[in-house]
Amino acid sequence: MKYLTDSFSMKMFDNRTYKISTKKIKKSKLMANTKDAVTSIGSFKIAKMLRKQVGRKDIKLESGDEIYVITSRFGRNKSSYKKENTYRYQVFSIL
User: Is the dihedral of CA 39, 20, 15, 88 positive or negative?
Assistant: First the structure.
């Protein structure tokens, strides 16, 4: 299964041991590879940029799955670091 999310969590795994490979990718690859992905996005800003609906879904990852993750580098509310429109794109392959 293929997933697209703005939030990656260890809660997405059952109580098993998995091997995971991760790779930093470009936005164009994320867009091309997630057209048919199950989407779970909570950020209105990220959803608008990707032209996807906002809405969280529970994701349970299994061997063979790929999860494409987009996260912002805006910093936290109480941080002095604010760099707008900077995102990190990654794909995690569950082996």
Answer: negative
pLDDT in tens, 17-69: 899 999 999 999 999 999 999 999 998 989 999 999 999 999 999 999 999 99
CB-based contact 70:30 (threshold 8 Å): yes
Q: Containing domain of residue 13, as a range?
A: 2-94
CATH of the domain at 25: 3.40.50.11170
Q: Which pTM was predicted?
A: 0.85
| Per-position DSSP letters for 1-70, written without gaps between them | -EEEES---GGGB-SS---EEEEE--HHHHHHH-TTSEEEB--HHHHHHHT---B-----B-TT-EEEEE
